[in-house]
Amino acid sequence: MTGKNHLALSIAKHVINEHQSSALFTTVLRIAREFKSTWGKNAECSEADVIKRYAQPDLLIIDEVGVQFGSEAEKMILFEVINARYESMKPTIIISNLALNELFGFIGERVIDRMNDGGGCTLAFTWRSYRSRMAA
Predict the structure, then answer these.
(1) Containing domain of residue 112, as a range?
(2) CATH of the domain at 92
(3) Which of 22, 33, 40, 106 has its C-alpha lying 20 to 30 A from 74's C-alpha?
(4) Eight-class DSSP state of 49
């Protein structure tokens, strides 16, 4: 942990407390799992319902990007969520342990374009992880 989660949650706390806005912290695996649960015959909700759930908060934080298998279906799911938020002009924070070039290759150019549009930016935390420093 390089402090990425701590910083993202501090931003969420600020958004909630100072702007009376909503924030949601989740993982990309949870999003993919919820999305895939809609594909069954007896699904309780639709793909559109899942996208709406993640498009609704004023701020969405998605952790563990790059941990999942990276199938085309999973990449499309992530794109659908990011795109819905992009169309609503809502900020999204993506947290990953991948190097920037790996992250860009993993999530795709379309997602990166949407994340960087309208003043968005990419930050790389390259210092040693907090956990490894504490173990040393």
Answers:
(1) 4-135
(2) 3.40.50.300
(3) 22
(4) H
